[in-house]
Each structure stands twice: as C-alpha cells, then as structure tokens.
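Q: Here's a chain of 181 amino acids. Please give me its 3D structure as tokens.
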Amino acid sequence: MSRVGRKPIPVPEGVEVNFKRGEIFARGPRGTLSRSIPPDMLIELSNGVLTVSRPTDNKIHRSLHGLTRTLIANMVQGVSEGFQKGLEVMGVGYRVQISGEKLIFQLGYSRPVEISAPAGISFSVEGTNKVIVSGIDKELVGKASAQIRALRSPDHYKGKGIRYSGERVRLKAGKSGKARE
C-alpha cells in the first residue's frame, strides 16, 4: 500500500473541508480552493483528520492514491498557512523592483522586463535582489517562480542570473581550466 497515501491529513482549526464525488473544497483564513479529484478515491473526515483510501489494488488506483492525498494536503496547508518561494537575482547590474502588482527586472537585456502577478499570487521584494512569490495554491506559486527564473536562468560559467533561494549552481571551469567555486 502507498506510504504517502496512508498518512492522515490533520485539518487545523478554522479550516473547513467539504467534498463530494470527484470534487473537494477547502476554505480557511487565507482563502478558498477547489479541485477535481479522481471520483474513485474514498475520502473520510473524522475527528478533524482526513484520510484517503483506494477502492482496489488496480494499478491506476495505486498510482492515484498518493497523488490524491498530496493534492488534498497541499490544499489544506495552502488555505491555512500559504506557500512561499524565494528567488535571488545574482549578477553585476542585475536588480529587481516592485511597482504596484508588477515586478520590473534589470537583467542585462536592452530593456527592463516586466512581470505581472497572476490571480492568487503576490510578489514582494527584499532589497534589490530578492523576490518572494507567495500564494495559497502550491502549483501556481511554483509555476510563477519557474516563469521568473526562466527570464534569465543561472549561467554555469559566471553564476549570474535568477536562482531559487538556496540553489547551488555548479560553475564550470571555462577555457583556462581554472576551477572556481
């Protein structure tokens, strides 16, 4: 049986979870999320704990068991705490600033690059080189972060570009053969 799928999902105070066949809704202090889930998966709520079980041991049910549980757990965590992803802008002359709901990047191109916040996502900037993407939907936070990183992904020779916070970029030696760290 799936190890991930068997784990119970604690529902914190102030979070309300409703489900019907093929649809689940979560409402909490940060907002409301809904998602369609496979209708075969069995969801039970008792004593503030959600459990997901599968009807049979077919291959399709086994593969959907852990996925369904993780999607529901992300919804519960999103409406109660939310998600954040940090990005760092590295490089001489590279910087970011916020203007309303838009991020304006200086990334070595001939013009500044502007990014608008999708619905449900908010941006914040710390200093001139740190961006924090936050929201209640983990999938949207990751997608928005990936789109920002794709504007100028890290260079493997000099290390400049946009990277996730804590991401290590291995630098290549270059022509002279000198190893840099």
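Q: Can you summarize the key feature?
A: The two ends are 44 Å apart (CA to CA).
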